[in-house]
Amino acid sequence: MESLIRYIKVIGGPPGREGLLVGLKNGAILKIFVDNPFAITLLKQSTSVRCLDMSASRKKLAVVDEHGTCLVYDIRTKELLFQEPNANSVAWNTQCEDMLCFSGSGYLNIKASNFPVHQQKLQGFVVGYNGSKIFCLHVYSMSAVEVPQSAPMFQYLERKMFKEAYQIACLGVTESDWRDLATEALEGLDFDTAKK
């Protein structure tokens, strides 16, 4: 590599052709396939990479830089979509394209779409996010934390985005949240969502 490797993330692929995301100290983010000697440069930023992850559809890239800022890019256009402060690690939800979480300063932050961040206390580094489970590494211990997805669901409900709220609810919300979703969808005349 042209610079020191700061972070590596396995992104899968067909057997014998798996891919890796590599973040370098000079700010370059590369995609490497194990059967190809040439690395593909996805992005080059001015600050060193501390952590990174790619969304399930491989359309968005989340990077935590050396200043503790979580930056989210559109991979195709290289456009910076948004940034959030106080991050040390980041992970996209594997079941929901528009949700990611990042940890830092003793908090877990969950961000859905372009809504404000939802915070709760949590020590450690986020290493994975699947449905309503967040996998967290604290010192030498890995734990799976079940996080109700109520806050992001209600953010979608406030904007009358019933189908998106339903997708979030499917990841894991309480019985009363389901009832609230059904009632709001019914009042908003989205009968399909209300019925589900």
Question: Can you put this structure into words, describing what you see?
Answer:
By secondary structure, the protein is α+β, with helices and mostly antiparallel strands. Helix content is 19%, strand content 43%. The chain is built from 4 helices and 15 strands. The chain has helices at 150-158, 162-172, 175-187, 191-195; strands at residues 5-12, 19-24, 28-33, 40-44, 49-54, 60-65, 70-74, 80-84, 89-92, 99-104, 107-112, 118-121, 125-130, 133-138, 141-146. A 4-stranded antiparallel β-sheet has the order 1-2-3-4, with no helix packed on it. It has a 4-stranded antiparallel β-sheet with strand order 5-6-7-8, with no helix packed on it. The model has no long low-confidence stretch (mean pLDDT 91).
Report a brief summary of the structure.
The protein is 19% helix and 43% strand.
Return the string of H and E elements.
EEEEEEEEEEEEEEEHHHH
Largest sheet: 4 strands, antiparallel
Q: Uncertain regions: pLDDT < 50 for 5+ in a row?
A: none
Helical stretch tally: 4
Radius of gyration: 18 Å
User: What structural class is derived from the secondary structure elements?
Assistant: alpha+beta
- The count of β-strands is 15
Rounded mean pLDDT is 91
Strand content: 35-45%
Query: Helix content range of the residues, please?
Result: 10-25%
- Order of strands, main sheet, comes to 1-2-3-4
* Shape type: globular
Distance between the termini: 51 Å
